[in-house]
Amino acid sequence: MFLYDKVxxxxxxxxxxxxxxxxxxxxxxxxxxGICKLNMSxxxxxxxxxxxxxxxQSQVSEYCTQLTGITSEKLxxxxxxxxxxxxxxxxxxxxxxxxxxxxGGFDKSIMESQCKEFDVKFPFSETYLDLKVxxxxxxxxxxxxxxxxxxxxxxxxxxxxxxxxxDAFNTAKLLYQVLKS
Length: 181
Description:
Elements: E1 3-14, E2 30-39, E3 45-52, H1 62-68, H2 72-78, H3 82-93, E4 98-102, H4 106-118, E5 128-130, H5 131-139, H6 146-152, H7 164-180
Parallel strand pairs: 1-4, 4-5
Antiparallel strand pairs: 1-2, 2-3
């Protein structure tokens, strides 16, 4: 039975390099899954957390650390495997039975490709809500970034940009406002 009481909201941070130039022998790889649950009845947000993932095929660049605040040392100390993170999400969030959402298609596509590559069961349902596309369809305008969309709607960004957990939380606030308008 599918559950409609809450929407799971995610934001993915991945290894990145200046000007998008991936060094030889490295790949773009998930290093953080930010996640929370949006209660559709009242807009409250619960169970906000960050799963730090140890990369296996790339290093965290200085540029990536400046952007996300995530260091190789932090991942080595606090990170878990991608497979373990997916299992934890599935169990903690009942994620196979709920709609999940994100701001744009990147989060969904990198999760799908990394699950396929690492032979890990995809931890989310087939029902993905791309908030960026939804807003564009409603406005009839070209999509803009999360921070600008929040600002345009007078929603205060809480936390740090490019922190998966904070971005997921702010996306959840935006999602509730859009769906209730």
